[in-house]
């Protein structure tokens, strides 16, 4: 008998093993509900929601309202689901209307915060996603309370007007901060409160004003950090008044929020420790948000609102017709 070459035998085994793996792989692909491309597309649509940007902060406002109204577990759960969808819609609609602007910024395209700008998701799919995110809170809110549902509709309209091209509240002086404070602070709190059957009182109005101020702070802090990137591409309150004045505005809002905190604590007879802890948080939060700017601006010479020293070659400026002189995006005083 002719001996069998061991290399040949091992080669046959390898081919059999490879064929076996191929069959298993094909079987897995046949039974897999989503192909790799479809899974990636779903991930890109989920990225449109930008969940990491808001999940730890914004849902607290409607939950606080629902809790103060004495809502049951089912009611509070419905409020949470409704506002998770509504906040998600806010970020999706913002990405939708900002897609053209974001395409001009390589950093935003590379970061993946707007997959539509990167061409990873289509317009039709994004519109369908927005329809779903709007339908769920509307159905849930109507089921809970009609007055609360009306506040949800107002919140929805304001979220849309903030980014929509025909209104674009996000590019209107002062109105950007006011609308942000309403749609992410005061209205979610009042909606959560009313959806759970709460009766408005002086204390509830006071707390809604506090959350309105905190919502304004959140936007001003964001604009301070994005100051360099926003120059020349979009108009915000901080690009109009300058970074240093933006910090002053942020400090004033923080001080005002502390006043409202102690007023609410006195009205509800909360302990001094609770009031002090809340006030401390309201001071630390905005300071931490702009920590990178404070040291940078502390060394900055007079450079706001026409005060930039254009004779200094180290401080590049570029004039914009009808506006104050803005620093070039390559300035060493940008965000680091």
List the helices and strands and how they pair.
Elements: H1 6-31, H2 36-47, H3 60-68, H4 73-102, H5 106-111, H6 123-144, H7 146-163, H8 175-195, H9 202-225, H10 227-230, H11 237-241, H12 243-267, H13 272-289, H14 291-298, E1 317-318, E2 326-327
Antiparallel strand pairs: 1-2
Helix pairs in contact: 3-4, 3-8, 4-6, 4-7, 4-8, 6-7, 7-8, 8-9, 9-12, 12-13
Q: How would you characterize the overall build of this protein?
A:
This protein has about 325 residues and is mainly α. The protein has two domains: about 160 residues, UbiA prenyltransferase (Tetracycline Repressor, domain 2); about 110 residues. It contains 14 helices and two strands, in the order H-H-H-H-H-H-H-H-H-H-H-H-H-H-E-E. Strands 1-2 form a two-stranded antiparallel sheet. Helix 3 packs parallel to helix 8. The chain starts with 5 loop residues before the first helix and ends in a 9-residue tail after the last strand. The C terminus is likely disordered.
Low-pLDDT sequence parts: 8-14, 24-31, 302-336
Residues in helices, as a percent range: 55-70%
Oligomeric description of these chains? single chain
What would you say the CATH architecture of the largest domain is? Answer: Orthogonal Bundle
CA-based shape: globular
What is the average per-residue confidence, as pLDDT, rounded to a whole number?
80
Strand order of the largest sheet: 1-2
Question: What is the CATH class designation of the largest domain?
Answer: Mainly Alpha
CATH fold topology of the largest domain: Tetracycline Repressor, domain 2
How many structural domains in the coordinates?
2
CATH H-level superfamily title of the largest domain: UbiA prenyltransferase
Count the E strands: 2
State the secondary-structure class.
mainly alpha
Q: Biggest sheet: strands, sense, closure?
A: 2 strands, antiparallel
Fraction of residues in β-strands: under 5%
Euclidean distance between termini CA atoms: 78 Å
Number of helices: 14
The Cα radius of gyration reads 26 Å
């Amino acid at each position: 008998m002719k001996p069998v070459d061991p290399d040949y035998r091992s080669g046959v085994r390898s081919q059999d093993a490879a064929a076996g793996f191929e069959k298993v792989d094909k079987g897995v692909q046949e039974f897999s509900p989503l192909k790799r491309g479809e899974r990636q597309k779903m991930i890109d649509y989920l990225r449109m929601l930008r969940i990491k940007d808001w999940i730890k902060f914004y849902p607290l406002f409607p939950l606080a309202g629902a809790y103060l109204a004495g809502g049951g577990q089912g009611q509070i759960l419905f409020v949470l689901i409704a506002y998770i969808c509504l906040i998600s819609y806010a970020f999706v609609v913002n990405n939708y209307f900002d897609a053209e602007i974001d395409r001009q910024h390589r950093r935003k395209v590379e970061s993946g915060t707007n997959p539509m700008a990167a061409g990873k998701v289509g317009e039709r799919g994004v519109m369908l996603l927005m329809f779903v995110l709007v339908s769920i809170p509307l159905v849930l809110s109507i089921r809970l309370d009609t007055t609360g549902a009306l506040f949800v509709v107002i919140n929805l309209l304001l979220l849309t007007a903030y980014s929509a091209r025909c209104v674009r509240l996000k590019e209107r002086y002062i109105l950007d901060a006011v609308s942000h404070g309403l749609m992410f602070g005061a209205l979610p709190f009042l909606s959560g409160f009313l959806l759970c059957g709460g009766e408005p009182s002086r204390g509830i109005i006071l707390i809604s004003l506090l959350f309105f101020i905190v919502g304004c702070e959140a936007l001003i802090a964001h604009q301070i950090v994005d100051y360099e990137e926003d120059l020349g591409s979009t108009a915000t309150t901080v690009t109009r008044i300058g970074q240093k004045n933006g910090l002053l505005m942020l400090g004033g809002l923080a001080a005002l929020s502390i006043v409202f905190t102690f007023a609410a604590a006195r009205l509800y007879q909360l302990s001094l420790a609770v009031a002090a802890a809340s006030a401390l948080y309201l001071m630390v939060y905005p300071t931490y948000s702009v920590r990178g700017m404070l040291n940078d601006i502390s060394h900055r010479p007079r450079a706001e609102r026409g005060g930039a020293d254009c004779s200094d070659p180290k401080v590049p400026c570029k004039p914009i017709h009808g506006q104050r002189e803005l620093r070039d995006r390559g300035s060493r005083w940008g965000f680091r």
